[in-house]
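ok so I'm stuck.
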Amino acid sequence: MYQPPAHDTPPPLPPPDASRFSQRIHGPIARWVTAGTTTVGCAALAGYLFFVDPNNPSNAYPQCPLKQLTGIDCPGCGGLRATHSMVHGDIAGVIDHNLLALFVVPLIAYLITRWVLGLFGKELPPFRLPYWSRYLIPVGVLVFTIVRNIPSLPLYYFNSGVA
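replied:
not stuck anymore, here's the structure
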C-alpha cells in the first residue's frame, strides 16, 4: 500500500485568535485578492446604486417579497432607495425611505473597511456596543417595524414610501 512521504515540518499555523475564514487567508497573494475583490465589489455596487435609480420601477432591482405579498413594510424596505439617496448625499431622502439605513449603511461600510485593513495588519478601533444593546436593538427594530406600518398621518412618514 502506498503511503505519502512524511513532511519534516508542518506548515505554519495562523494565530489562534483568528477566525476560520481568516485562517485560510494568511498568504500575501490571497490577502491581496480578497481585499481587491471586496473593494472592487463594494465600489461596483455603490457605483451601480449611484447611476441606476431604484425609485424607477423599470430598473432591475429586487422587490421585497413581504411588501409584495402583504403590503407590510419590513425593517429593510426602502433600504436600496435609502442607500441610493445616501451615495447622492441626500440625507432627507435616506430618512424618508428607511431611517435605519442612516445608521446601518455607514456601520457596514466601517466594518468592511476595518476587515480589509485588518488583512494587512492595520487596525481601526473596534466597534463595540454596550451589553444592554443586545436587548435594545432588536426591540428598537421591532418597534420601528410596527410604527412604520401604522397608517396614521404623523407615523406614516416612517414607511418606505412605495405602495
